[in-house]
Design brief:
alpha/beta; 18% strand; 10 helices; 33% helix; homotetramer
């Protein structure tokens, strides 16, 4: 931590701040500048949260951390990429893993039809929502356990492992029973009770970025899962909220190389939510892979115009197949494959 | 809903969209413009979410809702202000209700000391966190049930009703046992499982705005609680996330008059989180009341420089007393009182 | 400046960075932390921009400034509030100065009618646009010099000094001839050629914040004017761009106390642009004064529904008179007046 | 335009709004909904700006435009891609055009050295700043006309056409004399005087997006240039301002497919400003091309650690050559080349 003192601070104040730093277990190191004094507090930054309280002293201008506050998620702690095995796919390995399927499981026919078609196009994981977080209480809330069973049936029929969302701690067990990856949605990225609970589950976790979660906060949320004992965390960029309204969200592909620098965890991109319009999904899927993503999460529906949720951003199966052939060429251009 | 068709759409396409609108139970009304056709879909907009799926048709440019999607929260449905009684205070009545206390309950001495002092200064409700949502798993997570008991003791000693946060559905009962108002934090504003659960609780709910929640989404979250059968919802503006870094968040006081227009629910402002710096809290508390807020939520700590959380934004008790005297003058200028 | 080195940096790298710091004219002061080394570069931060280039070295993690980069605008350099005299009003003095009038000057009748009515209600300065920055080239662009003459006529008739916008360096002389305050619009806040030019003008400058300008950048723009030799700069908060669409912009009232801490320049609030809807203007005008603003800038039009620009956010004269009576009470509650 | 009336509006009010619409030259078409009446105003939307003023009527809830407000920039008006010839490169044709060079021209040696090296790596245009828009008045402001001459010398030596920024209307002629493309910087995207002036220049214009300019506003700025008679406009996405601080800006690659849908103008991506860190430039350059961009704008400096501006985001020449070889593979994967 760097503690910046206000200009004109007395020597007694400097001494007082140094004393407080020592009392919290750190070693102060003071630099006397021309206009201001700055004190470095030496010790492990990760426990230094308490030093921030010094900002409430009248003589302190600001308290700035030097180290990233996450530890288990950090590439400084583990240099080699984490690889998460799901069925016979490996997220974070050489190949791009595409997870595709409907936003919501709506019927047996719908999910089986899509499952066969996304598999034929090269998807390695089937996505589908059974418990749905909906902005309005009056919108379709998902088929719940019935939906989970339909996903499991699609897995039996196609061999595709399944990813689906879990929304509350109490449902982790039942979702884990039917699912191969537990998805934490954007709205739950700082639902710490849920993060702790999936940290104890034996299944991989795909953690979506919140719509206004900074990359640092996102990695701290991953840290909750890792600290709970679950090393299999996949990060998913899905668009952040900005002033632009031409798209539903702004897909932040900068996050891909930033994450590749900061963490060893695999990174997946969701261009369906990240744009909100099916017409833009293919371009952004290609861009995501070119930026270095390890996988894609894409919404596919046999009849988007009748979908019970997210119709505007869902691709028809034939458009998805076209996307896959184009994304494959990008993957090969970066010496990977699908 | 207004469905805008792309320019150059054929008459057959228009007929097809009209047919689909009828199939969903609405009446289409087509306006033939000079460059585009526009179709109004007549019926209750609140169930019209499904019409949005039409946006996935090639011939459709956009689908735009006309009505606000919330119902029970709307001032169109209930014109009179909702008043929420808490102890002998009424949130949403003539008087400004100030809720004050520490970010976290840290010790018996701390919470009792603050409780007496904020009461003496005119606060009507004691705030304090027992279950703390912390960005980092390594930060202080709260005293949990022990903290709830200390709050209850402070209530017995001072007579102040208590507000504290509940973070997961399973804890609603225990928090409701000790608390007079259940606080839903910014990070849980779209934790729909939790919203449904507090909708069934018999205690008032204070619902904080998420850091990137639009006012419309926020009111839909309130709608979850109201639809669950709990009419006592208080909304709390606590700052949104923007590009500005001079403050921790940007307190959106525009939200106060916007909410007063759209909804009958009472509105409270939290200048402590909304600024993140104690030096700005008083000014923004005054501004909040001038903008029309019904109450304030303010962090007070006997020793902010040693606080286990949110020290930089906590006021010392004497500064809080000063704030109260200034806010009182603003309240009187708008024909209210504290 | 604080230069943070990456973990695992060699002693040779530390020495190299120290050498480079010295070569740029600063004194390095190295703190050896547990995980990282941090180097403070001592000297005047305001010229230290070049030190930022060190961030491109492989061994450097980040370069963080300690001092605010503005100087003449800083309260550390000049503690006493700057007061800007305009006609017989003083912006930054005890009284709140309200500047009111139409968005655009549209006709002789319109501007004279409004001028008399805002004066009667207590406004001290007449606002009106002659050169209009319009998003679309097809929108009304202002009456230009003809508009300036009408403003001057209104000043003669009412005695109210005039504020109007100047959009390009070449027009500064003609605008200064007719106007008492030169307004720099939000879209020109970083038009540095224009800032330099008004820095040489003999008239006060009202500098609006850009819609995504940080407070620090805004003060650096003010610094351009001050460094040009013009000490009479008024800052005007007019709303920033955020994700919220219920209002046209998000009026950032946090900026008022932040500015009052950082700078000696007077601060004015524009609730008309800051909300974009006439229904919210009064509440936010009151909030702005309660937050500590020295003045208000408000759009008033005799027939908003026929205005050539900004009709939705313009008040009718009788609504403006009501606003003034309410704002006066707030001003008195903070020991000021209108 | 769609005019939405408030619920409970009287028939007399509806008639009054219809009358006003007719008075402005449009044909009203009223839809009587269950809860609200909606009036479509038929006529050319592009002149309908004035209809927005109806929003100030008490009975009007909102006024929503249906058509995009730009015309010459629209793909509806001109379907074929615009191709802008610069030297022997064509921006908007089959090949990706890479424009590279230093942020600022600093010396003869620097600009010539970089020019030769970026040419050798495959760049087709030399970039370099002579007039620099700098946030601080105390930062290096560019070599001005001396810098233009050095750029012209580099062009003679290498044959590379030159792009450089123009900051004010008065300098358009001198910059056009030395430069092949006139760059309008992000801070001037709504400097309408400057846009009008370059609309009259005989040179292509590269128009950067502002840091908080919506795509619609950006295209309206392009419309100013096109309406001035200059058809050769290149759009450049360079990152928008968001809450994320891990990167300097958030490069909005969603904008690429959105622009490709809305407009015929070529689109270039600037990953140097869009990320602010040299380590992320290569990934985002690749992503930009995969998303469909027609070109790249990249900062290259022989010694970034001594650069007078933008050192942290500048690539060394050898890193730039590496980037080019990787971007070429992506270009080929999308059936283009460099």
């Amino acid at each position: 931590m760097i503690i910046v003192l206000k200009s004109g601070t007395s020597e007694a104040d400097v001494t007082d701040v140094e004393r407080r730093i020592r009392a919290m277990g750190y070693t102060p190191h003071t630099i006397h500048g021309e206009l201001r004094n700055v004190i470095g507090a030496i010790g492990d930054d990760r426990g230094k949260e308490r030093l921030r309280a010094l900002e409430s002293l009248e003589c302190v201008e600001s308290v700035t951390p030097i180290l990233q506050p996450f530890k288990l998620a950090s590439r400084e702690v583990k240099r080699a990429n984490t690889q998460v095995a799901v069925g016979n796919a490996v997220v974070g390995g050489r190949d791009i893993v595409v997870m595709a399927g409907p936003c919501s499981v709506e019927s047996r026919w719908q999910v089986l039809d899509v499952a066969h078609r996304v598999k034929a196009a090269g998807a390695r994981v089937l996505r589908g929502g059974a418990f749905k977080p909906r902005t309005s209480p009056y919108a379709f809330q998902g088929l719940e356990e019935e939906g989970l069973k339909l996903l499991a049936e699609a897995r039996r029929e196609t061999g595709l492992p399944v990813i689906t969302e879990v929304m509350e701690p109490d449902k982790v067990d039942v979702v884990a029973e039917y699912s191969d990856i537990l998805q934490i949605g954007a709205r739950n990225v700082q639902n710490f009770s849920l993060l702790r609970r999936v940290g104890e589950a034996g299944k991989p976790v795909l953690l979506k970025r919140g719509m206004s979660t900074s990359i640092q906060e996102w990695l701290l949320s991953a840290e909750y899962v890792l600290a709970g004992g679950n090393p299999n965390v996949i990060l998913c960029e899905r668009g952040i909220r900005t002033f632009e309204t031409a798209t539903r969200f702004t897909l932040d592909l900068n996050a891909v190389p930033v994450l590749k620098k900061l963490t060893h965890l695999p990174v997946v991109v969701d261009p369906s939510h990240g744009t909100g319009h099916w017409e833009y999904v293919e371009s952004m899927a290609m861009a995501g892979v070119a930026a270095g993503a390890d996988g894609l999460l894409i919404e596919v529906h046999p009849k988007p115009e009748e979908a019970l949720s997210d119709g505007p951003q869902s691709l028809k199966p034939d458009k998805f197949a076209m996307l896959m052939s184009r994304v494959r060429k990008i993957a090969q251009a970066v010496e990977r494959d699908i």
